């Protein structure tokens, strides 16, 4: 839509006399409440001379506001014209209208006001000082570029410390996925329903109203929403008042909210909808969880609602600061693109996050819901109460909330060691990803982050996951309670304001000094936040030396001049005392504590507290192996997971013997803990993926059967009874045991799956299979079955009303071993009478995971790559999925042929080049490892029979 700025006598008069749908309502509110006129009565009568057309002096030289003006408060009146119950989206009214008055302070003399606006039809009402004196306007211009500046050049300069008011009227459309958005869904009786909601982060408040749209420009917001009668309006704060008004024969509600706390524009929020809620009054605040009426009545928000109160209690206790807003609304929205958005006092989620039914959802799905809720609630303190000064310090809110969500999980799910999951879900994931992604620092200079694309690029695994694990690293290295004391000090000193990374280090340093602990926090942590990558720590127990080097799988990216100040926690086999050491140089550095006699071993990064990899001299690795085999419990659970992950990665790099990680897995015969098994499972599945088309797959399968057999037996009584253990981590490991056992065709697992599936097939209305087991049971039964089992699952896919169940069945249908059925399934995926267009990618991807279907999927994609069904971009996505198995020169040549056809065209060439790099890496790995790995598996498989 066109973007215009008017300023004239006619426009000013029209703003208060004829803009009926937007501003008559506003005037009614002004008269009824006498709010605006008390503070700024002149604005309703002010007129201005016409603007000139000469070119203004121009915006600041960069993307940032100049900082001459600081907002103090806004009064915003917003009218949404959306019909919540409307037949046909083409008849819908997506317009919104309103006006805004921002009160601001001048801190540097200037005659130009810069304010953000994007995609709005804007009318300037006027500018006045605190006494009501009009400020004559010279010219106004909207800059049509990424800066989104409205520049208002005044005849006279604004004086330092003076207070001023800028009033505007605006109109926009709410069909964007940012700013003001519209969601479309089907009601309980299949009627079309709509809702309108805001999504401001990171810089889209300017799409809704003119504002100083930077996180440091905090202000108080006075929000009034005008919406159709019969709808509900929510905003950040509790409702203050509501009146009805007739406008052009229609009934409208005018809902006014209490003033907000001082906060940033990106967490300003509102929603207009027709949902219902579950409510609990906790005394100092009221919690409401909103969703579609049928979802609430079915009890599907009960779990999310119950844990949110516990999570809020945890953060109040941990931070020492009470939740300050008096209410918290959380809303589940179908089609919400993000999992969650932390708007202060009005958190919005994808509906699936807020809904849970133990009869349908898995423990994994339940855990995702809990961790996302904990993350968004954490933001009420880390991000909303204390906000980063600029987006270059985004990690201060996202890294903190990611880390803190794991601590909160222990409160929500006690007894399950949920906070330990950070080891495999964050540390290992980030260590694995950071060596693959482009180099990025946790924090950068402000001037390096300017445009919206710069800001958006920060929302990635480094900011969230690495931010979390480096915070955990320093928290675990400091004496107990010191990190929490520092965090409390940081939050209290900066509440309702903004902070930079160095502010956090300063408050942690004060807590460290009070505890008489010797560490320079900023000097240590800057090495982790201001440079990318991570080190490999090498300990030699024969010489007692320790050293570090930048770790990278790509030799060309290794940088020998990069060092970190590394907090290291160690323990020895003959002692439970944990030693602390700070490695500050590349080394090697001698440390007598690291010397071991012939019967001792040493373990570093105890409990997996460090964000780095650890290597040892061969003698120490051998002693650790012996300890795992004799009594693995003497090595902490999380450290066992680290040993597995580090050994596999170091072997890939050539830093340890290629068979070392495989030898470590042997001890798993005796381990039933989730975290070590999860660490190993990922590597075992990758080995299977690399070898399941080769002549040695049989011996690999025999070894994995032998390995997983005892773990499957450990959970067998639960599995046969389709029940689960009490502990969440035990539930997750039961899933691992059944999934891996059935994948390598352990006979007893196959029989269990076939029997449970047959029970369901004979009584389709009663599914006896526990949700945790359904993905594996469905897949295994269809794989060992035939057309009868496949057709039953297909029928269940067509009739199931539950998305999660449909996704499980969709994946399981690709497990069949019959090529003709797989071929039919692919044709179904392309036929709109059978499946939706969005199902094409997952269906072909699932078929490609099946070794029987891999070639079929690859032939399908190549034959359709140049057609319009599916579109070409989908073809490239599918090539990426299918190529995970590619490890031969012939397969690489096939990709090169497609590359030659693209010849540098747009996105396709970039995707194909990354795929080629991946395949070259896999070819190299097979060349270097196939013979050694094959011989090892053959030897191990021959030493014992596979379990039945």
UniProtKB/TrEMBL annotation:
One of its GO terms (cellular component) is plasma membrane. Its EC number is 3.4.11.-. It is found in: Cell membrane; Membrane. Its main location: membrane. It comes from the Eukaryota. Residues 303-528 form the Peptidase M1 membrane alanine aminopeptidase domain. Zn(2+) binds at residues 375, 379, 398. Residues 601-920 form the ERAP1-like C-terminal domain. Residues 71-267 form the Aminopeptidase N-like N-terminal domain. It is a single-pass type II membrane protein. The record marks 464 as: Transition state stabilizer. One of its GO terms (biological process) is peptide catabolic process. The chain crosses the membrane at residues 12-32. The keyword tRNA processing does not apply. One of its GO terms (molecular function) is metalloaminopeptidase activity. It holds the Pfam family Peptidase_M1_N. Belongs to the peptidase M1 family. This is Aminopeptidase. It comes from Conger conger (Conger eel).
